[in-house]
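Sample pair:
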Amino acid sequence: MRKTIIALTDSARRYADGHGIRAEVTKLDLDAECLAGDIVSLEREEMPHDFVILRRRWVISGKRREIEITLDHPARPLRV
């Protein structure tokens, strides 16, 4: 089983900290099928919190294979 690491950009970290959801966001169970540009919405009672997948990075070390998914905020379309 592969582990998914959720990384946050500085702006996503500030947003998550400001709303008290950083622990929740960094523990999201996203899988390797996620693509850059996908929107990830964490739905809470008060409002949805939208992030965009900025990039995916495979981290290979010995026998470990992990995917790192970096989230950004605000969720806006990526430029190609």
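The beta strands are 3-8, 39-43, 48-61, 64-72.
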